[in-house]
Amino acid sequence: MHMPMPLTRCLVLVAWAACAAVQAAPVTVTAGQPATFNFDLSVAGASPSGTYTDIQLDTGLQPASLDLSLESGFWQAFTGLDGSGTAIDLGSLGPFTLPLLLDDPGLADGLFSARLIMTAGDVVVEPFVTRSVPGEGPQSVGPLQAPEPASLALVGLALLALGAVQRGGGRPA
Question: Which pTM was predicted?
Fold first, then answer.
């Protein structure tokens, strides 16, 4: 006879799954509204954390106006997440923006953030990083994204239900 999974286990699994980090989707960045992307290279692949070499940021840039000459802005990298740590200027946005080489030693641990600051116009970006580890080929990694508000609401409801089940004795008589 197949026994259904207890409600408390189901709720814990739902809460755990909703908290998982997901890869970011394309983001529209407009003038005056910077966008920050966090990268943790150690969680993306099987490679051990450590010194990463040949880190390149591909911006996945798409001009919203179909004319990149109307948009201007610049990229920065930071040695920590969420724009913390030392800032590193990566250069201006232009019509032929190539992947940006992130060769600063402060980024070699694979835990850093990149920020796009638009000064005019707006663009759609979907950045990802290509990195290499000594002895391995290059691998592409997308930025981490915080769980969306709806997922966080589901986690909250699951935890409330879990508390109610535990407080009420678990099962009806």
Answer: 0.60
